[in-house]
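All the exercises in this workshop are built on plain-text protein records. Instead of coordinates, the fold is spelled out as a row of discrete tokens. Once this layout is familiar, the rest of the handout is easier to follow. The record below serves as our worked example for the rest of this section.
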Amino acid sequence: MYRIVEKEFLNPTVVKIVVDAPRVAKKALPGQFIILKIDEVGERVPFTVADFDRERGYVTVIFQIVGATTERLAELEEGDFLSDFAGPLGQPTEVGQVKRVAVIGGGLGCAIALPQAKALHERGVDVDIIAGFKTRDLVILEKEMTEASTRLILTTDDGSVGRSGLVTQVLKDEVEAGAKYDLVIAIGPVIMMKFVEKLTAELGLPLIVSLNPIMIDGTGMCGGCRVRVGGEIKFACVDGPDFDGHQVDFDELMSRNRTYTECERRAHENHKCKIGRTGN
């Protein structure tokens, strides 16, 4: 059993929990993920490790309420326990020798990109974080991103805070203004990563993306997380989650991610109905 030691709503639909999991904290590296279960009959769900504290043995995960399991997870409080918390899984982020990097996060992707940015910044790399959100009310981790970067550039679709417009436009503006990036790391909605790939290809910039496809066991046995990279089938759970963004088939990934949309919607509605009947 794994105790939740901290819980915080970062915005109305995004929650941060800190879990007492010393074995995971001891080995976790930026870019890796965990798979948790709320209880013995619960769904196995993957979450990227947003932070870890080796001394205290704590692991932080940040998630968005999008379905029945994340709804249930958000209902837990400090002091409650999770049945399973397996990890660290996947390959840690490897970027080689770089001097300046643009780390692009879209919405919840900022939480996933934060540990990569933090690790690079601590190495002395110049890190520009370009963080995109729909509106001011959805901005998360602004303080943490500021501390993990040389410069934080916030952008919102409606211009309510930071620059107005998309992260791709900001990246293009920075390059045209003279920014010489050795690498771009992009993490967020698949459609965002697809357009970042298109732009970086035009600009001749290397690109790393972190993929979060449908995943079940997290060890490469089920094949549910398969993605097409460079024309070959890869498993995100063991070969990734980081991949060369210029090799990813984003259209196939988007199609596969929509496979269980209706099932997820029904499960979410059923959970809300149960809450209504019990009065909780």
About this structure: The longest helix spans residues 261-278. The first strand starts at residue 2 and ends at 11. Residues 93-209 form a domain with the Rossmann fold fold (CATH 3.40.50.80).
